Amino acid sequence: MNLRQLGYFVAVVDSGSFSRAAKRANVAQPALSEQIASLEDELGIRLLIRSQRGIEATAAGLMLYGRARSVLTAIDNIRDELKSDSEPSGEVVIGLPSALGAVLASPIVSAAVRRHPKLRVRIVEAPSYLQRQSLRRGELDLAIVFDDELLPALERRPLYTQQLFLVDQRNGRREASGVASLADLAGVPLLMPGRSTRESVVLALKSIGAEANVVAEANSTRTLLALVDAGVGAAIVPSWVADRGDLRWRRIAEPISPMTVSLYTVAGVPRSESVNAVIQLAERIILERVQLADWRGALAYMP
Prior knowledge:
Elements: H1 3-15, H2 18-25, H3 29-43, E1 48-51, E2 54-57, H4 59-83, E3 90-96, H5 98-115, E4 119-125, H6 128-136, E5 142-146, E6 154-162, E7 164-169, E8 179-180, H7 182-185, E9 189-192, H8 195-206, E10 213-217, H9 221-229, E11 234-238, E12 247-252, E13 259-266, H10 273-290, E14 298-300
Helix pairs in contact: 1-2, 1-3, 1-4, 5-10
């Protein structure tokens, strides 16, 4: 197995075609096909299959694809860093769920490119559970996500906890925002941000003999607030979304668990100076923002 074979293999999976991959890699198609066949022979396993959608990776192929992407990216970063006299450079890929991306992507990317002009930062938005899977496949350098499960092969650093708020329409009411009890959630059409929050609410309501009436879920906080505007129900969201005056925001009381936001990397894999530089910047920026007065319900993690 060599870097050329890995590069050809990644090109085929990305392109879904041997011919397109050959053009992308600037190599004759028979030569590329021979290298892939040699790779499969060496590993003793089939990596690619032909389907109606073109060439696709098998389960083993997907595993190799993630590792190969990680290796090739690391090699590119090493070249960039050596050429730039150790100044952080190359591409760093950060995974963020859309709710966090709305508030963290801009300050992190701005600080990174200002501090390290030779860096390129790419943001990938997807739900937290998909971010962790992408990280394991080598498609991300780091991910800042909401916790709902721990996966092997990942290194986790909790950053802060975020209390949840119940948001509904004021309907002409002008009472001050306060605290929403469990009883306030019972029987209300609820709009949830994801599985972990839903499970926490369901269990809490069961403890008082009530059932959760979950009518919709959305990974985007913007979408949840749009559903509140449409009168679909009341949304459960973190408070750092813009606290609009036309909506009522109430902190949800215990025992609804706060959300934990953590930074994940792949365990046991050496990180480039560029990735380490972005991690340090991200951790500092998040800590600073959590301490802002308008970021309500957030508390820096204390181990």
